[in-house]
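Field notebook, page 483. I keep forgetting to write these up properly, so this time I am using the form the group agreed on. The chain and the ligand, flavin-adenine dinucleotide, are recorded exactly as supplied. Prediction of the bound pose follows.
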Amino acid sequence: MPARTQELPIRADNSSAAASPIAGTSKCLPSHMPGETFWQTSRHHLHDHRSSEELPSHSDIVIIGAGYAGVATAYHLVKDHPSLNKSITILEARGACSGATGRNGGHARPDFYGHIPTYMDRAGAEAGAEIAEFEIRNLRALKKTIEQEKIDCDFTLTRSIDVWCNADSASKAKAVYDRMTAEGLEYMEDVAFYTGNEVEGICGVKDAKACASFTAGTMWPYKFIMRLVELIVDAGVNLHTHTPATSVSPDGEGGFIIDTPRGKMHANKVVYANNAYVSGILPQYKKNIVPCKGICCRITVPEGVTAPLLNNSYINRTEDNVLSYLIPRADGSIIVGGAAAIFKKHEDQWYDNVDDSVLIDSAKDYYNNYMQRTYRGWENTAAKIDQIWTGVMGYSYDSNPHIGAVPGEKDQYILAGFNGHGMPVIWLSAKELAQMIVNDIPFEKTTMPRLFQTSQFRIDRALNGKPEDGDILGSGKFAATKP
Ligand SMILES: Cc1cc2nc3c(=O)[nH]c(=O)nc-3n(C[C@H](O)[C@H](O)[C@H](O)COP(=O)(O)OP(=O)(O)OC[C@H]3O[C@@H](n4cnc5c(N)ncnc54)[C@H](O)[C@@H]3O)c2cc1C
């Protein structure tokens, strides 16, 4: 596919970063004024940072997007390759970590058996299992880095409890568990699955019919990323916030010209880490990575009230199969979100929608009294929503991220499309992508799961497929896959 770029509509504005958000007016760029979120209540001093007053005229590597993917890529470039000696610039449309990463549920939960059986059906047992194994390695690597760099981000290594309150769903989940254990996968030894009368007593969720547990992590994602930002800025990476890339075009000599409202800059290599918004610059991804909104909130109990301690993270599914992810925090508050089944039919409220300044109307009341109606012993706690917000995810047609060299292009890389599931995926993906960039190696030489590789096949399958055959809006029954 030839290099195709697209001019994005922007509100050009050259005044100071903090005072003048110059993010988008279209679906291609983040909204100007994201709603408040608990995680960003206390802004980091580098949130609106610009490394220099003027945009540099050239950088060897330009990374578009300062969320988890962009910042982790820069971190691995400078920390894993200390003799790299290349200039690196990150362009960020809004403040640093103001996208999905700064607005999510803080749950770093590898997929042991959720989507893995589907990936196995589509591409074989090995291709599916390697995703679970990669995500488990990610969690361990994340923990190691947080400890080594002494990052204060409330990281916990915990057990994640999966709960099913619908009897039919519970027996289907048990069948999946049995299938996965029968595959002989070593990592499944970490999973404990329970059915029977004592399930409610094990997980604490009222009317639970089945539950399972395995190792996962919880954290304060904004604090994690902003500490990495500090480290990379100290290491010489240029960060330019409130500087959206509006187009990327070839310079005719193997490099690229990147347009921004603050002027043009030249790059030798470009990394697209702008997740939900990637098709704004790479339109071939329009049907592969679609901006979709999610909702999340923080629940607190009044001062003086002691609510039962939850010391596990959760995925809860109600009797009517509404799914919520939940993490407890050491301050006694709860972060919980999801409820997609409640708003799914209101497509205008979430699908192909980048407006994280407004809540999802059909779901905004769902978490009122959530703790009281869900957990044993919380009935009289008066727990209530303290803050509620939305965020924009990059949903992918086949549920897998797109990582690697942009098909048909040289020196252009993509790391995007993480759905509601970037936390246990991005860390090592960025590390491996950094290897590709530095050592000029193909995707196949990395340790990333094969199904993560971006490819013309995947691009075309979504472009030519119907939305109702893909995973985002429909059945996921698109034609048989190949990596
Ligand atoms: C409500 C909610 C809850 C979630 N909960 C969880 C969870 O508990 N666990 C989990 O694993 N995942 C969760 N996710 C998903 C997770 O947050 C994402 O998968 C992950 O953060 C993606 O990281 P990213 O860096 O790719 O994207 P982002 O964090 O969105 O970063 C992309 C950045 O690119 C910038 N940008 C966009 N366009 C341009 C441009 N043209 N020029 C310059 N910059 C640009 C954006 O402003 C943004 O800062 C949740 C997401 C949401 C919204």
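OBSERVATIONS:
- The domain at 157-217+291-396 is CATH 3.30.9.10 (D-Amino Acid Oxidase; Chain A, domain 2).
- The chain has a mean pLDDT of 93.
FOLLOW-UP: compare against the apo run.
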